[in-house]
Amino acid sequence: MINTRHLGIIGLILLFTGFGVIIFEGRPSEILEREAESALSNAPIPSTTPTPSTTPSEQTNGTSYTIANVATHATKSDCWSAINGQVYDLTSFVSRHPGGAKRIENLCGIDGSDMFSRQHKNSKRVQSTLVLLKIGSLI
Amino acid sequence: MNQRSTLLIRYSLTALFLWFGFQQLTDPSSWITFLPSWTGYFPIPGEMLIQLNGWFEIVAATMLGLGIWTRLVAGVLGLHLIGIAASVGGAVGMRDLALGLCTVAITLSHPDAQTLDQRLKDKQPVTPTTS
Hints:
The complex is a heterodimer.
Chain A: H1 4-25, H2 29-42, E1 64-65, H3 67-71, E2 74-75, E3 78-83, E4 86-89, H4 101-105, H5 113-120, H6 124-131, E5 134-138
Parallel strand pairs in A: 1-5
Antiparallel strand pairs in A: 2-3, 3-4, 4-5
Chain B: H1 3-26, H2 46-66, H3 70-88, H4 90-108, H5 116-123
Helix pairs in contact in B: 1-2, 1-4, 2-3, 3-4
């Protein structure tokens, strides 16, 4: 006979399944790129039909930005920074930075490679957080 | 506590957590500013954290509304909300603290008769005792 223990277990299964779906759907763009690359390498030879070119707004990590582009995003509510040749959108991280929002605000709109390297040079944890915020590369 | 009072509080809190859960799941970017700074240590995007929290609140609220593991779920939700209140602070934190304590009050009271906990318990066959 069904009892609340069974229902509770169903609830827990539902909870963790939902977590899995959210994490899978929101997996970082670097993983998406790798999946796309391996799908392309396994794909059959394409036909001669020209493929439509994607605009920079449709790409995520494949886009390149100049430092002038980065400089136009220099506020707390729209914060980009160039770090070690890559461009990151730090807007969602400003309030989450464990060292305080001000440290991130100081990087908005500029090349923050020096400041970043001085503070977090060898930190794998910080690198893995940063990679999630990458939006392109610096040219 | 009176059965109807417990029922009213339970359904009200269910509606509250369901509403906030759906808001977080569908529009996570609006909730980014509420994330505490220690979440920056997790290599998880802020929006994903919000969505995970939203899903947790939806499932827990559904279990609270149906009355499954009522006291446990109410306790977890209550402590969760008290934690959020402590993190947010100010007037919003004060309000959340009061709501969190109301949720914890459900843990401290006997589940009302409308919960599945009680209904299924009442349907269990009673083992006759020999005197």
